[in-house]
Design brief:
This protein is mainly beta. The chain has 1 helix and 79 strands. The protein starts with 9 loop residues before the first helix and ends in a 5-residue tail after the last strand.
């Protein structure tokens, strides 16, 4: 049988082996001892919560084994602390204890790691302040459980700001932020407390002085830096400051400390003489050497240079040296000399020169009987002088009592205003006078139909009467029929005529008593001169303000729009030394001696060296050969040039953006019209332009109040934009406020104003803002537009017309306007038409010219006295004509031999014959070799056979492109050397 297997337990085997090893036989041996289990009594960190970047220690108490801690700590001894190393985030550590038998036990301990507190901002506002003022400490903190400030403020936990009052000097504030683990962050700000500025005294040596003579101001102050306004002149305490080259009526001392706190002190009531004066189209300048210069219109000798010639640049006034101030009336000049005498020149019909006669003077004469004069002023037709004793002396016209002597008798000699004393300033208008008294009140006398005396009525006064309720005045100004007063607080009031909003109160309402000029404060300088509807003033800190009439750009604000409230020129022109407002122009003299001007320069009154016209052709510089010129039309004041590459240049009047380059100032040199190409032809009304492109589309820009841009709106555009939906156009034309397009299919399309039925659609709306087809008209091959009438030529050689017909320009034998196209009787075989302002012309295939319509200046060309023609007739004495070109009251005919003939109005030399004489019959201009002509309202541009461009006629808006302009809508500097 199989033996049973031997089964031995491990314990039996161990025992057997033990017994064998001990040599024993069957007897017993030592009993094995069991290993105790490992034990952990405790395990934990010294700091269970720490800040990021810190370390802690771990301690474990254990027995019956060896211990290790994970996370890189390693072996540990029971009861002995070991370091964790730097921790950046919370961790859990495990202690493992293992006995010799390999049995183990574990325990865990977690160390929480908190981010350090963060101070993201700590500011003081303000950081620099005046002693005794508060600053606000503001902070933004995260991760903190407590906050504290130094400087005795201590705990600020739970807040984000604290208002403190620093002591004088520099103080540093430190903020400490602490988190729950005891970690902390700090931030500091420094605050400076400075003394308050104080002014002990501010005085002047004189209140009335010549422009270059000036005065001396002295101030005592502390705690800051001193500045004198206007002019931003640095001032030191106790050091006298000479002040000259200014017409300021208020001076302000401003002392500013490092904290920006300001102390001010004002001196008011100064009556300085001016270095610039503006009359009706002429100007007078006082130079630093005491000499006097003039420019502009000189019909009455008002330039004082011994001649009657207009001047486009300043000339010396004869014998005027050692002068302190200048002034102007309408057509006469005045100068005050250092010896206290007064000199005058120019127009003297009303005795305004004060020399005892009514004889005009083209060189200065002394006003007899006047001594110790300290200030001068002028009305339009009378003179004013203030003597040192406070009496006011007057002379000249007295039709409304403006001399204040109780009568209306003109007086050619100076005499004091009876009973009027204590005067410190004055101003004169067309027929009224204002006087400022030393107590700040104002008296007025003379004409008052527009309320210019401010008495609450419109009754004239032959004697001085106080302006009720008006006090605290320091300076006076005057327009023709309006009055102005500057008050000690820098505000202004005005009264009188307000037709052009020249009172600046936001209305056009006549005011018989003073009203506030809106939007002005801290004013120090008023304009002087012979203004008609506009006024200017300058503020202490900078800026020239203008308001009122602006049809010549005289406000200097960049357009031709009247302003009914004070408007700042540009972005803030610097405070000038002097301002003068003339008839439709303005002079502004800077502290640097640079003279700038705006407005009309029709007689050279701005000193820009220009003339109002050119009566013989002269080249246009800067345009390439083969350039095609276009003037727009019979009412246009702009020129356009199409360059060989189809791009466009423009010049002339800039109002409403009609030049197309986004600049609304007048252009006296050609400027590129951006973004326009492929132009084939141009047309323009008085303030809008059209461009016909080679692809048959039309661009329009400029004024749009009647919808003349055809874009469906009445919004003006300063850049060209397409006329929507208009295609296939081959010719364009423009009247004053309307536009016309001739399409290749012979139809005519019109849009804009319909005030004279010029849109040709029979009874129709007053205006159309989108093109529409003129009904009942086809087969048209040429179109031309006048002021309010339209001419077209059909393919059969007939001429048709419609619109305004007051002068017979429709040619139907009547003066009744027509609202639908009408065939002009008696005309056939016509090859061209040209519409003037109110006259019409047609060119026959045989080279003869036919005319009808207005004839105020001989534009009918029949050699007879002026008489309107209601039906067409052949102009005698001219043939062989290749093209005709009508302007405003004149016609130029280009003959096939290249010669140019003309007739009609010629005041601006627009006939190009070297004269300004109107002609009632065709006559050669003397111009030959001409390839093409383009005629505007009163000017002409031509291309000669050598491809040079020439121009002549009126240049009031720079339309001759000669680089000269006769109107400036923004102040423009000229080379008038006054210093």
């Amino acid at each position: 049988m199989r033996p049973f297997p031997l089964i031995v337990s491990s314990a039996s085997l161990f025992l057997a082996l033990s017994m064998t090893h001990c040599g024993g036989g069957g007897g017993g041996g030592a009993t094995p001892q069991p290993v105790p289990d490992p034990q952990i009594s405790s395990f934990g960190p010294a700091k269970a919560t720490i800040s990021a970047g810190e370390a802690t220690t771990l301690t474990g108490v254990f027995s019956n084994g060896t211990g290790t801690v994970d996370q890189g700590v390693g072996a540990v001894q029971s009861g002995t602390a070991v370091t964790t190393g730097t921790l950046t985030s919370s961790k859990t550590f495990t202690l493992t204890v293992t006995n010799t038998a390999g049995k183990s036990t574990t325990s865990q301990a977690t160390v929480n790691v908190l981010a350090a507190p963060v101070i993201s901002s700590f500011t003081a506002s303000p950081a620099t302040l005046t002693t005794g003022e508060n600053t606000l400490l503001t902070w933004t903190v995260s991760g903190a459980t407590s906050l504290s400030l130094n400087q005795g403020i201590n705990d600020v936990t739970g807040t984000s700001s604290r208002t403190v009052t620093p002591p004088q000097g520099t103080t540093t504030y430190t903020l400490t932020a602490t988190n729950a683990a005891g970690g902390s962050s700090t931030a500091s700000v420094t605050v400076q407390a400075v003394p308050a500025p104080t002014i002990a005294s501010f005085t002047s040596a004189s209140r009335t002085f010549g422009f270059f003579q000036g005065t001396t101001l002295t101030a005592q102050f502390s705690g800051g830096v001193g500045t004198l306004l206007p002019g931003n002149i640095p001032v030191l305490s106790g050091i006298p400051v000479p002040v000259s080259r200014t017409t300021a009526s208020r001076f302000v001392l401003r002392v500013t400390n490092a904290a920006g706190r300001i102390a001010t002190s004002s001196l008011v009531g100064f009556q300085p003489g001016s270095a610039v004066a503006a009359g009706d189209r002429f100007s007078i300048f006082l130079k630093a050497d005491g000499s006097v210069w003039s420019t502009g219109y000189n019909f009455n000798g008002q330039l004082g240079d011994g001649s009657l010639l207009d001047r486009g640049a300043p000339v010396a006034v004869q014998g005027m040296t050692g002068c302190l101030a200048v002034a102007t009336g309408a057509y006469h000049g005045m100068a005050l000399k250092q010896d206290g005498t007064v000199w005058t020149w120019g127009w003297n019909q009303s005795g305004q020169l004060g020399d005892g006669t009514n004889t005009d003077r083209n060189s200065p004469v002394m006003v007899p009987g006047l001594t110790n004069v300290i200030a001068i002023s002028a009305g339009q037709l009378h003179g004013l002088a203030l003597r040192q004793d406070g009496t006011l002396w007057t002379w000249g016209a007295n039709h409304a009592g403006q001399l204040g002597d109780g009568s209306t008798t003109y007086r050619p000699t100076a005499a004091p205003v009876p009973g009027l004393t204590g005067v410190v300033g004055m101003a004169g208008g067309w027929g009224h006078t204002l006087a400022l008294k030393e107590d700040g009140t104002v008296v007025a006398f003379g004409a008052n139909a527009q309320g210019q005396l401010g008495l609450g009525s419109t009754a004239n006064s032959l004697v001085p009467l106080p302006v009720p309720g008006l006090t605290g005045v320091v300076r006076l100004g005057s327009g023709n029929y309006s009055s102005y007063a500057l008050k000690a607080d820098g505000s202004m009031v005005a009264w009188g005529d307000n037709t052009h909003s020249q009172l600046g109160d936001g209305t056009t309402i006549q005011r018989n008593a003073p009203v506030q000029v809106t939007g002005l404060n801290e004013i120090t300088i008023l304009a002087t001169g012979s203004t008609n509807g506009h006024f200017l003033a300058a503020a202490l800190d900078g800026g020239i303000y203008a308001w009122g009439r602006n049809d010549f750009g005289q406000l200097g604000v960049g357009d031709l729009v009247n302003r009914n409230v004070a408007t700042l020129q540009g972005s803030g022109a610097p405070t000038p030394a002097a301002l003068a407002a003339g008839m439709y122009f303005t002079l502004e003299l800077g502290h640097d001696g640079i003279l700038t001007a705006a407005g009309s320069n029709s007689s050279g009154q701005l000193g820009a060296g220009v003339a109002p016209w050119r009566n013989a052709p002269a080249p246009i510089p800067g345009l390439a050969a083969n350039t095609t010129p276009w003037t727009g039309g019979s009412r246009s004041w702009n020129g356009f040039a199409i360059l060989p590459d189809g791009t466009l240049k423009s010049w002339g009047m800039g109002g409403y953006g009609v030049t197309g380059d986004g600049n609304m100032a007048d252009h006296s040199v050609p400027a590129t019209v951006p973004g326009v190409s492929g132009v084939a032809a141009m047309a323009a009304g008085v303030s809008h332009a059209l461009a016909l492109k080679a692809d048959g589309t039309v661009l329009a820009w400029g004024w749009n109040h009647k919808g003349q841009l055809g874009d469906g709106t009445t919004t003006n555009r300063t850049a060209p934009a397409p006329v929507p939906g208009l295609l296939g156009v081959i010719a364009i034309a423009a009247s004053v406020y309307a536009s016309f397009a001739l399409k290749s299919d012979g139809t005519v399309w019109a849009w804009g104003s319909n005030g004279y039925s010029e849109l040709g659609g029979g009874p129709a709306p007053a205006q159309r803002t989108e093109p529409y087809q003129v009904p009942g008209l086809g087969g048209v091959t040429a179109i031309s537009a006048g002021d309010g009438h339209v001419l077209v030529r059909k393919s059969d050689g007939t001429v048709w017309a419609w619109g305004y017909n007051y002068y017979g320009q429709i040619g139907d034998g009547t003066t009744v306007s027509r609202s639908a196209p009408y065939q002009v009787p008696g005309l056939s075989d016509m090859i061209a038409v040209s519409a003037g302002m109110n006259e019409s012309y047609a060119l026959n295939a045989d080279g003869s010219v036919w005319a009808w319509g207005a004839d105020f200046a001989g534009q009918m060309g029949d050699g007879a006295p002026a008489a309107n023609r209601l039906s067409p007739f052949q102009v005698p004495g001219i043939g062989g004509v290749a093209s005709i070109h009508a302007g405003n009251g004149f016609l130029l005919a280009l003959k096939s031999d290249g010669s140019v003939w003309g007739w009609g109005w010629n005041t601006y030399g627009q006939l190009g014959d070297g004269t300004n004489t109107n002609r009632n019959a065709p006559a050669p201009t003397g111009l030959t070799g001409v390839l093409s002509l383009s005629v505007g309202s009163s000017y002409v541009v031509a291309v000669k056979s050598d491809h040079t461009l020439v121009s002549w006629g009126a240049d009031s808006y720079g339309q001759l492109a000669s680089g000269r302009a006769l109107r400036f809508q923004v102040p423009t500097s000229f080379p008038v050397d006054l210093w």
